[in-house]
Amino acid sequence: MPAITADTLTLPRLPELPETATAWRPVGKVVRAQKFLEGEGFQVRRPFPGVDLALADPFLLLDHMGAVEYGPGEAKGAPWHPHRGFETVTYMIDGAMRHTDSIGGGGLITDGATQWMTAGSGILHNEVPPQDLVAKGGLFHGVQLWVNLPRSLKMAQPTYQDIAASDATLLSSDDGGALVRVIAGEVAGHTGPGSTATPITYLHATVAPGARLALPWAPDFNAMVYVLSGRGTVGAERRPLEEGTLAVFGPGDALTLRAADTQPGSPTGWEVLVLGGRPINEPVARYGPFVMNTRQEILQAFEDYQAGRLGQIPVAHRGSTDEII
């Protein structure tokens, strides 16, 4: 797992939180991700939305892609498609994904980098594996998170930001047993590089076997932990959590996690995403790639897409089978 790493003994440390005087968040629910096919037919594991967790305001969707070892010709992507009304955050842990959009943005997202796209009023984009990965095969592992936008920003101008692996803010747990990569938001006064239209915190932590990670957490944010690989426990009650499962926490101002003493298939430790945000508390109307506040706005999004008002595929990237909108 080549997401950026470092010697935890050289990094700033999170504060030590007292066991008895801290309002630890309890675990309210554990959800197992369901498997779906997306794009041209690649598999994702999705803890939400689903039957067990329909909405995690301000988050809309979490897709765990891989980890999978593709053979030659097997890698697939999500060709040109529209979005309106929210943000997509694509974090590549292993392998690479090439992004192109209708406003001239794009690039290669690889090995610990994050691509943050604010669709806003509307954009077309293309997410496909690079040609060398398609031709030769290889390891592919990433996560895509959808973050809702408040009504006041849903029709904002589309933008995107590229966050290199080296841009992430690196922290250590209080005892040096865990490496925390802050992609966006703030933890104990340390801020990640992602610029968030909706207030969120997004972390990737590697917790060494048997080690504990304690995180102060904004009381007005919700809190979730998703396991990328390995196993451990969450909450003061030590609820078990393994690969492909998500824990949703109740109220409080701190989180506690502990990696199992052994990590089969995960030599670096327990790999987890920790995310939370301030709920928007607005009506949500969603259909496919559009997330608005009302059904009428969804119908308008489809009309605008068909009329070409969400952008057009750049000529340089238009294939013979692409629809000219």
From TrEMBL:
Residues 202-310 form the Pirin C-terminal domain. Transmembrane segments: none annotated. SUPFAM superfamilies: RmlC-like cupins (SSF51182). InterPro entries: Pirin (IPR012093), Pirin_C_dom (IPR008778), Pirin_N_dom (IPR003829), RmlC-like_jellyroll (IPR014710), RmlC_Cupin_sf (IPR011051). Gene3D superfamilies: Jelly Rolls (2.60.120.10). Belongs to the pirin family. This is Pirin family protein. The lineage of its organism: Bacteria, Bacillati, Actinomycetota, Actinomycetes, Pseudonocardiales.
